[in-house]
């Protein structure tokens, strides 16, 4: 009877693990490799050794760390028996990496926004004069905030934690469906307790992070992007006006140039809009679903829904720096040249073999 209960308890965890790794491992591998390619491209080009690229390099490092932690993030929403110190570690460290990634993303957008809004005063901007302090500011506050549960702001003394990973003899009807059950079904190791994000992060901590950090950061990025597009639209109108004023002959030629400018601007707006929808909307949906579940005060949840939303939400947002990096040919030129050399060498070898035959 115990073997049947253990077997029925192990199966949910195995299915959860397969789903998590089936989604996160390919996505994490792609994120890591793409970040390494862009980092290599910046490191090999000395012309890119400047403050804006240092900020972007810091963002790539944070994105790389997020890609490494991605397979472990879905486990944060699943209850499992761990010692409280281990529970703190598996929740605090991914949260720190994610917040550091978000802070780096905001500062990169802000630096580029100021470059467009105030191009004449760009070189004397305070971010450029004190960029080591700015880099410290985008890494230290996330670490301090994410570590607050380790300094006592947690729910360890909350009621009802001893049974959150317990199962009945049949293994399902009375059990939480989002609980990892392999260790809970058998004898748990000594000193282990129920590890749940509700135990590590109090409700006030979650609300403050979502509505005090995440929402303002996303809104600021969206606002800066919209402002840049608006400025670009105004500059394009000025260029078209100048073309019309200086063109005395060939009015159709000026009209054709205006059409090309309008088409290019339309493509730019479409690309930015699609990037925002693809990278941010899944994460926004994931955050609101998590907050709704938190407000419902339920201990049960659909583990499959949580896993899919967390993987797609975090993963899609981690793609944002890769879109910015791969769109810049300066970042990818060293790797492109290396691939061209390898291709030419392979072709020469093939030609020499054909000649020998």
Automatic annotation (TrEMBL):
A single GO cellular-component term on record: plasma membrane
Stored PROSITE patterns: G_PROTEIN_RECEP_F1_2
Keyword Membrane among UniProt keywords: yes
Cross-referenced Pfam families: 7tm_1
Domain called G-protein coupled receptors family 1 profile: residue spans: 34-324
Entry-linked InterPro entries: GPCR_Rhodpsn (IPR000276), GPCR_Rhodpsn_7TM (IPR017452)
Transmembrane regions: 20-42, 54-76, 88-110, 131-153, 210-231, 269-295, 307-327
Subcellular location: Cell membrane
A GO MF term: G protein-coupled bile acid receptor activity
Subcellular location, principal: membrane
Membrane topology summary: Multi-pass membrane protein
Keywords, sorted A to Z: Cell membrane, Disulfide bond, G-protein coupled receptor, Glycoprotein, Membrane, Receptor, Transducer, Transmembrane, Transmembrane helix
Stored PANTHER family: G-PROTEIN COUPLED BILE ACID RECEPTOR 1, OLFACTORY RECEPTOR AND ADENOSINE RECEPTOR
Record-given protein name: G-protein coupled bile acid receptor 1
Source species: Salvelinus namaycush
The gene coding this protein: LOC120050545
């Amino acid at each position: 009877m115990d073997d049947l209960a253990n077997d029925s308890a192990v199966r949910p965890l195995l299915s959860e693990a397969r789903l998590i790794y089936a989604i996160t491992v390919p996505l994490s591998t792609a994120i890591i490799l793409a970040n390494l390619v862009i980092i290599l491209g910046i490191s090999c080009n000395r012309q890119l050794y400047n403050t804006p690229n240092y900020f972007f390099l810091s963002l790539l490092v944070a994105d790389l760390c997020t890609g490494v932690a991605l397979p472990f993030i879905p486990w944060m929403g699943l209850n499992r028996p761990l010692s409280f110190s281990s529970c703190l570690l598996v929740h605090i460290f991914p949260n720190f990496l994610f917040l550091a990634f978000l802070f780096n993303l905001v500062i990169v957008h802000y630096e580029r926004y100021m470059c467009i809004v105030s191009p004449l005063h760009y070189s004397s901007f305070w971010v450029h004069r004190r960029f080591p302090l700015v880099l410290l500011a985008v890494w230290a506050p996330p670490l301090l905030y994410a570590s607050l549960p380790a300094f006592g702001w947690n729910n360890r003394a909350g009621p009802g934690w001893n049974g959150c990973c317990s199962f009945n003899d049949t293994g399902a009807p009375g059990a939480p469906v989002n609980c990892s059950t392999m260790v809970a079904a058998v004898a748990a190791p000594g000193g282990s307790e129920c590890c749940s994000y509700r135990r590590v992060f109090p409700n006030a901590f979650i609300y403050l992070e979502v509505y005090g950090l995440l929402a303002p950061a996303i809104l600021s990025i969206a606002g800066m992007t919209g402002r840049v597009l608006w400025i670009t639209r105004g500059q394009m109108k000025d260029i078209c006006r100048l073309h019309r004023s200086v063109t005395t002959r060939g009015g159709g030629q000026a009209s054709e140039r205006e059409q090309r400018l309008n088409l290019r601007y339309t493509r730019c707006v479409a690309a930015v809009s699609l990037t925002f929808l693809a990278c941010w909307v899944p994460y926004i949906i994931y955050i609101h679903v998590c907050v709704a579940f938190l407000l419902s005060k339920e201990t049960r949840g659909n583990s499959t829904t949580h896993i899919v939303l967390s993987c797609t939400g975090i993963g899609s947002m981690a793609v944002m720096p890769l879109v910015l990096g791969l769109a810049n040919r300066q970042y990818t030129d060293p790797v492109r040249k290396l691939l061209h050399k390898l291709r030419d060498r392979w072709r020469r070898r093939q030609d020499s073999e054909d000649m020998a035959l």
